[in-house]
Amino acid sequence: MAWYEEAVFYHIYPLGLTGAPRQNDYGEPVHRLNTLLPWIAHLKRLGFTALYIGPLFQSVGHGYETTDYRLLDSRLGTNEDLRAFVAACHEAELRVIFDGVFNHTGRDFFAFKDLREKRENSAYRDWYCNVNFWGNNEYNDGFSYDNWGGYNLLAKLNQRNPAVRDYICDVIRFWVREFDVDGVRLDAADVLDFEFMKALRRTADEVKPEFWLMGEVIHGDYSRWANENTLHSVTNYALHKALYSGHNDHNYFEIAHTVRRTNGLVPAHIKLYNFVDNHDVERIHTKLMNKAHFLPVHILLYTLPGIPSVYYGSEFGIDGRKERGSDDSLRPYIDLSEHRDDYEKNPCTALIAALGRIRREWKSDLVRGEYRELSLTTRQYAFSRGRLIVTVNNSDGEAWMNVEAQAPAYVGLLTGRRIESGGGRLNVCLGACSGDIFAPDDGNARPEVPVCTAASAEPAPRPETSKTAEKTEAPAEKTAAEPRPEDAEIPDIPYDLMTVEQLQAVILGKMAKNGPVTESMRRDVLGNVWHNSLVNWANSFR
């Protein structure tokens, strides 16, 4: 099996993470890429095996208006810096793929500059699509041309021109020769020419064993792009959408249907690139109405068929929202030293680390194991991957699940609890907004330290349904009751102005209106001390 089929990816947008200026003055190189070297140990600690980083090469702004495909962006450093960075990743057994922006170039690219200077006499007039010397544009070039996304800053390359095709294939050869890169993520692959992609695939097969081509595709039948002749994989935007809206809407049918549909279209040997956020979409922590759903969302990301990927910073549970049409808040500078305690103190970070270890130790099941749906309601979802049973709950309360089981006993890899199965069935109670991954308890399963209260809460006793089993407990001796947050007086002010304690009281009160509040549910609420998270949680009740 190829390395990328088993990979767990980390995604870095380097111009943002290093705090580079928004505009490139093409001055002396500034060695910001070297500041990412400490992140390699961070990736290893969280269980990542591959890095997707980009865009990297010389450009004027956000990186996707390429000026020079063979030169590291001077805001990041020099080619020597990039060569050393990839070598350091390889030394740590991390594969590296670059962003390949081959659909369009920037206006400072040599071929476009020649076109602007020499017009009809340029040797590169056919390098771009639909160049019209009777037209004009906002730059007053005296000609018009096809662009990407309506932005003339991004001039569309004519990928059917053999010279363009040969040039881009030589760029890939250069990247392998100079930087030893392991693959390329193709930007805007859904608008690339298919013959062009076939040429890239032939080049990939030539330059390096298991050189990986992964394309950015939003909608459609993914097998059109990911197949034996073009790309090895594409971005799974369908699952991305289902993972957050399936939790916000309390609708696991959307996620399960998406998995079924994708499995029906894409052959099993094609592993799609799964993600919950990236440099173009809002952070998963921002999109989730109930922040506690961060846990079941990532359990599904790591266990559903495909190649999981985490976008830098999301392992810390940071927020990022598109503002006034800008993506800047999605691509922030992060000082890694400020998160040195997150491995132990941040439940989001601890969860990602635990899932990374589980992915590594149960690779044969989570990579090669058959996906089989076991149980599905709007709020609970269970499936098997090989020998493992994955269960998730998006409800605000505890839930019991009864699913088919093959082993006599199972251990929860996220919680450490051991459950015996009877009659070929496994009865499991899941805490509110939680989940677990159950492995056969054959003595080899090594459970993780519980990663959050939602996952590790002890289940409440299963309610008896038989009339003869009903019992009445003797009343306990009364003791002085401790003050309870849900009994606190709640001021008539907006949630944004409330304290953490007041918000906790609001949430517990709303839960009580929907039914009994268990001790597990109380622990979930009282364990959440993040103000913004509590505000969103309070607003999530209807």
Explain this structure.
Residues 452-482 have low confidence and may be disordered. The protein is globular and about 80 Å long. Strand 3 (57-59) and strand 4 form a beta hairpin. The chain has helices spanning 14-17, 37-45, 79-91, 110-118, 162-179, 194-207, 237-248, 252-265, 284-287, 294-303, 342-345, 347-361, 363-368, 453-456, 500-514, 519-526, 531-539, and strands at 9-12, 50-53, 57-59, 66-72, 95-100, 104-105, 147-148, 151-156, 183-186, 212-215, 233-234, 273-275, 307-311, 371-376, 380-385, 388-393, 399-404, 409-412, 418-420, 425-430, 434-440. The chain is of the alpha/beta class and 542 residues long.
Task: Note the topology.
Layout: E1 9-12, H1 14-17, H2 37-45, E2 50-53, E3 57-59, E4 66-72, H3 79-91, E5 95-100, E6 104-105, H4 110-118, E7 147-148, E8 151-156, H5 162-179, E9 183-186, H6 194-207, E10 212-215, E11 233-234, H7 237-248, H8 252-265, E12 273-275, H9 284-287, H10 294-303, E13 307-311, H11 342-345, H12 347-361, H13 363-368, E14 371-376, E15 380-385, E16 388-393, E17 399-404, E18 409-412, E19 418-420, E20 425-430, E21 434-440, H14 453-456, H15 500-514, H16 519-526, H17 531-539
Parallel strand pairs: 1-2, 1-13, 2-5, 5-9, 9-10, 10-11, 12-13
Antiparallel strand pairs: 3-4, 6-8, 7-8, 14-15, 15-16, 16-21, 17-20, 18-19, 18-21
